[in-house]
Design brief:
This protein is of the alpha+beta class. The protein contains four helices and four strands; from the N terminus they run βααββααβ. A four-stranded antiparallel sheet has the order 2-3-1-4. The protein starts with 7 loop residues before the first strand and ends in a 7-residue tail after the last strand.
Length: about 110
């Protein structure tokens, strides 16, 4: 298996604190989605809510998938003022977060 050249994906799993109101969560997610318009190295932004039937998501309720041009793009995103401001706004409302960065790997059988 060979890693895809170039782009890198970041998957974020969020479990919000119980006291965070659903409309506030929605606003935070909406504001987070705007990062794709502010950070040049961030090429795409996708989000979904957990719909697991069989597997326990360990309380995680939201998933966000980000696509970057490279691992250097992730570093630029992490240092970008818009990301840092969003981090400060969302972090107090998270009970748990899981972050995974990966390079997509084509797999053929």
């Amino acid at each position: 298996m060979e890693e895809a050249k170039g782009f890198v994906r970041r998957v974020l799993l969020f479990k919000f604190k119980a006291e965070t109101a659903p409309d506030h969560i929605e606003n935070l997610i909406k504001d987070h989605s705007n990062l794709v318009n502010l950070v040049e190295s961030l090429k795409s932004w996708h989000m979904g809510k957990d719909v697991s039937v069989k597997y326990s998501p360990d309380g995680f309720t939201h998933v966000i998938e980000l696509t970057f041009e490279s691992t250097e793009g992730i570093a630029a995103y992490m240092a970008h003022p818009a990301h840092l401001e969003m981090h400060e706004r969302i972090w107090p409302h998270l009970e748990k977060i899981l972050v995974i960065d990966y390079k997509p790997t084509p797999f053929c059988t």
